[in-house]
User: Fold these one by one.
Assistant:
Number 1:
Amino acid sequence: MDKYSLDDCRIIDLDKHHSDRKGNLCVVENGISLPFNVKRVYYLYDVPGGESRGAHAHRTLRQLIIAASGSFRVTLFDGKDHKSFYLNRPYQGLLVCPGMWRDLDDFSSGAVCMVLASDIYKEEDYIRDYNDFLDFRNNG
Ligand code: TYD
């Protein structure tokens, strides 16, 4: 199986439509904006200040993480390097490849973390134990 690295994860600019009088609109469309088709959308909200989420990796799932409102930090770890992305623009998304340990923290008040995912929810795709993750990266 392909092993993705941090370099494969990046910020994507979404298709933004601006109107001076009426505000902004962003579009994400299958087959155009993303290197995967979206099968599921979920979002985190009302995350208390100082709380963190994530602390897992996915075996195959691809995701686009968007700060639909407010801001938060996403720290990715590919088993070798760490990289943090501070998301605070609703017209950008962070593309997260499979096999990345992620921690989300520093949520602002009112932050909405919207996730577009390449598959439906499958618990067996999660790696929730850190040592299992290191094993997956080094030997899997
Ligand atoms: P989890 O992925 O652990 O949340 P986070 O990484 O943001 O801290 O999910 C929290 C709970 O929600 C867990 O019991 C599984 C459930 N869940 C679903 O049922 N469907 C989903 O699509 C997601 C993402 C989570």
Number 2:
Amino acid sequence: MAVRSRITGVGGFVPSRVVTNHDLAAMMDTSDEWIVERTGIQQRHWAGPDDSPSGFALEAANAALTAANVAKEDIDLLLVATLSPDHFFPGTACFLQAKMGISEIPALDIRQQCTGFIYGTSIADQFIRTGMYEKVLVIGSEIHSKGLDKTDAGRDVTVLFGDGAGAIVMEATDVESTDDSQVFSTHLHADGSGADALWLSSPGMAHPDGLVTHAHLDRGDQYPKMNGRAVYVNAVKRMSEGIHDALAANEVTIDDVDLFFFHQANLRINEAVAQRLQIPAGKVYNTIQKFGNTTAATIPLGMKEAVEDGTLQPGMLVACAAFGSGFTWGSMLIRW
Ligand code: ACO
């Protein structure tokens, strides 16, 4: 017998406002045809003015707690992955903790963008394996829509992103065999030499002229900037490597895996990864068509969808991989 972590509940949340590609075409010089052909995205959800990432996190966390049948008072650690925090400081996990009405447990933000959920799951897994904590909430929550450039200048980035949150409850479990529900392994990487290929420059303390200035705003430094080609090429390479890492570490093959959750940046990226690894299309669970890229929320939101529609069943062997700004990437293999 060994102590491992397992996912005991999953929840998700998206705001009610649906923004179609046609809606975007009314705001900027783009088209449904261009967006669908290049990315696979058909629509995304956008937050309302009073919404916050911690508010979305609360919705997803409550749903995951209910699914796991765990009381919020029993959670030992709160992890929130987000690239769109409520405020510059303190962390969004602290705002969430106050909203949940629980106090004194540690609350930690993870700033690994699209890979944030995998980093969070890995951190939770380490704490549970060592016996330090028994129940951990891992949440990815994002509001992109308030921070995107909705003019022609921002069209390459703005059409890609959507708002939402996803959460899991992870609990300690005694496992006897690989058939038992558990997290087998997690694999984390980063290459900071790609940091400015997808980034948001201001506000930032590295600026000689201050955190955020009129000059920054005039240049549009408050909007995300992306080298789309560099992101595309690295995402295909690194997510493929990530799946190899997870399979090799556990001596299993593509055929042994029942379902793959890839980060949803672009349907073409995921199709290229599946082709490279010779994964049948039916084993890759894609949600980008209706949610766009929800960065750290993507994988738990996808898991929640897959549970609800019956695709994700107990006992399945599940591989996940993500790639994002940083560059960061990671993967994991779990028995659901
Ligand atoms: N609508 C219409 N035209 C557009 C748009 C748009 N939204 N955005 C760019 N264009 C134009 C460009 O201006 C360019 O025009 P030009 O030929 O007259 O100069 C043309 O379309 C082609 O632009 P490219 O950037 O070369 O298009 P590409 O085929 O590379 O596709 C894309 C762009 C979809 C962003 C691609 O590079 C990509 O998928 N990259 C990966 C980036 C990604 O998925 N990021 C998500 C966030 S990162 C993450 O989560 C890992």
